[in-house]
Design goal:
Helix content: under 10%
Oligomer: single chain
Low-confidence stretches: none
Mean pLDDT: 77
Distance between the termini: 49 Å
Shape: elongated
Order of helices and strands: EEEEEEEE
Length: 93
Amino acid sequence: MSSGSFLYSPNYGAALERPTAVKLNSSFAPVINAGLSYNINKHWSVDASLSLSYMWLSTRATLTTQSKLGTVKSSTKIKLDPIISFVSIGYRF
């Protein structure tokens, strides 16, 4: 639960500022990844996955606020599709 203060409205003012419940639909997000590992010598190595990882996630969020005016429900679709990069340098003892 959180405050519904983000539901401020010019018409209703702070009447919608009550506890808000959020529900997210379950979703599955596969990740595609490609990269390389390179041993420079017996101690040092480099790993990279530069702009080659991709994840797509799409879900629906429903917000329910119990306000002075009654129950207010709002819903939105959330979409994430970042391109992820990664570089590391390793040292083996």
